[in-house]
Amino acid sequence: MADGLYARVKGSGTTAMVLLHGFGGGCDDWYDIQPDLARDGLVLAYDLPGHGRSLDHPAAGVASAMAKAILADLAERGIDRAHVAGFSMGGAVACLMGLREPSRVASLTLLAPGGFGPEINGPLLERFATPADADELRAAMNGMAAPAYRFETKHVAALAARRRIDGQKAMLQGIHGMIARDGRQGEIPRETLATLAMPVTVVWGTADPVLPYSHSRNLPASFRFISLDDVGHMLLMEARKPVTAAIRSTVRSA
Fold it and tell me: Pick from 76, 105, 103, 81: which is nearest to 93 by CA?
């Protein structure tokens, strides 16, 4: 669509779902989830600005600008209302979409979302964003998961191919500087989150080494919370079935 914002589209129907990946990822992170959800309706998995086929989009690195860009893209596609699921940085973007235009966001499923507390593992994210080779990338990916989890080669290879896109590492380095300054990230105040009137589900792994599980404390009373024992940060791969079930149940609750 316009302005170089890419989305992989699957499914059809009146129910629209939007999937937003985390920092350094891409629409392929949803590769094993999107087809399942597409049985229920139209599903758009975006490359967020600054990533993959949306590399040169001007909203790169600014969560509020990313939220605005996705809402504009949905409007251009004729989608007036959608259910939004976001992982990590994509979770923060999803929240801001709901706060910006609540009438257009039918529900939110937030998977270890950014912006729910100040701490963030900046050094690990930097190694993930700018590895020297596939072995370093694999080590960073495994470091973001629970201690016992090891990524399959297909997942490492897919991300390694993205890192080889001309200009991708430099872009991620710049975005990293915006989202993880001195080991801190920007926060969305709890009182602001409490104004979200649509169904909201938050999913977090107790062994998350990137965004601490403690960020799930003191959520608004209206939020549904799902805790995943001994699961790390990489929920889309570590906990594909619980994540898919959480998104589906949240959509149906709306």
Answer: 105
* Burial class of residue 142, CB neighbours in 10 A (0-12, 13-18, 19+): middle
Dist. CA 37–CA 185, nearest whole Å: 31
Report the DSSP pairing between strands 200-205 and 82-87: unpaired
For 2-118+185-253, give the CATH class: alpha beta
Q: Kindly write down the DSSP assignment for every residue of 30-41, as one continuous string.
A: GTTTHHHHTTSS
Residue 240 near residue 145, CB atoms below 8 Å: no
d(CA 125, CA 172): 10
pLDDT tens for the chain, residues 1 to 254: 546 799 999 999 999 999 999 999 999 999 999 999 999 999 999 999 999 999 999 999 899 999 999 999 999 999 999 999 999 999 999 999 999 999 999 999 999 999 999 999 999 999 999 999 999 999 999 999 999 999 999 999 999 999 999 999 999 999 999 999 888 999 999 999 999 999 999 999 999 999 999 999 999 999 999 999 999 999 999 999 999 999 999 999 99
Q: How far apart are the first and last CA of the chain?
A: 28
